[in-house]
Sequence to fold (403 residues):
Amino acid sequence: MIDRLHSLHRVYTCCLGVSIFTWTLLLPSAAQEAPVLRKSPANAIQGNVKKQSEAISVDAQRRLDLERTSVEYSQVLKEGEFAPFLSLNMESQKVDLDLKKMRGYFQKKQEANDERWKELERKIENARQPELERRARVLAKWDRAMNDTKSRVYSTRNGTLFNFFLDQIEVHAGFSSSGDLSPGLVSGLKRLDDNVLRGLKFEVTAPGGAIEVSMTNPLPSVLRTSPYLLLDPQFKDQRERVTTLAAQVLGSHASAEDKYSLSEDYIQAFEALTTSFYLKYPDSARKKISMTQWHRLDAVDAYFRKLDQTVSRAAEGAVDGAVRPVYTDIYAPEQRNLATLCQFLIQNGIRFAKPTTDGEFIYDQLFPQFRELMVRLDVEPDQAWMEDSLINLDLEKEVRNEP
Fold:
């Protein structure tokens, strides 16, 4: 159909050009002078007549072609045979517009994805930098513990070094999720008797300060011992009532009402004991006392604070709350060694506390055992651990998951 239209258009154009040329030859120019009549040969006259006849024929054919073309154009437009071409053209324009919109959409989406990748890279880098600094501190602390005797003794006797060892054991050996320890690990380790376990001090973190716990008794040490000045027979009955009620509050209860009643009884007994004590030792009488007596009074003050904190925390807990297990109840005497003790401490959130003055030698004796355990567990922060894949992470490769 399109070829047909093009053919008609060419015919129309050709006819129009021939007609104009023919009439130009036939019509005299106004600018020309009157022609000079000359005698021509017969053959020349005959040739001119022939040319004029041909020009007239060509013009007649042009008119005929113009009429035929006009009729065919009218027929095409009338029958609507050109409509599919117009429809295809409109569809093409619509597709081009849709493609342009899609390109704009995906370009914006790609820009948004690039920004999210950059944000993820920043988050990973912000997390990696503190980890790098933390490991640097760990490595420095490990070097001081192993190579600086003075620093090791100080950190050992305040409990921080052993807690550092617990953290490294958990990081490298995962004691919190492990079951029974392998025989090869515990074989040959020195046993921990009750004297050593009583000499070691332990605590758990709690609001208001740490609370001391025992490895051999479910009750905290604050209920098993009393400071020197409270051993006065004058305070015996009140002291025993306070410790008895405190132990009951720390125990199990049938209902919340029973626990509340015991807690109220304990508070009254505790207030009676503290009132009696401070009436005998008022603050005004502490101005002129010996250093020994001052330390004894300070010990009683600390005892009252720790006792009240321990019992109050238990009173505000759940009635059916889990009771903290006791190390010596879980492990038989032949199983009590540093490996099982570390596992018990890690799994129950217990930390080493500062020892008493007469128990510092026990901490000193425990350091070689810790060192042997670390060797068996292959726990030793070093430069390789410092420079592992986490520190040297290729952010671009990891984030974008590129090969």
Summary: Residues 83-147 form the longest helix (65 residues).
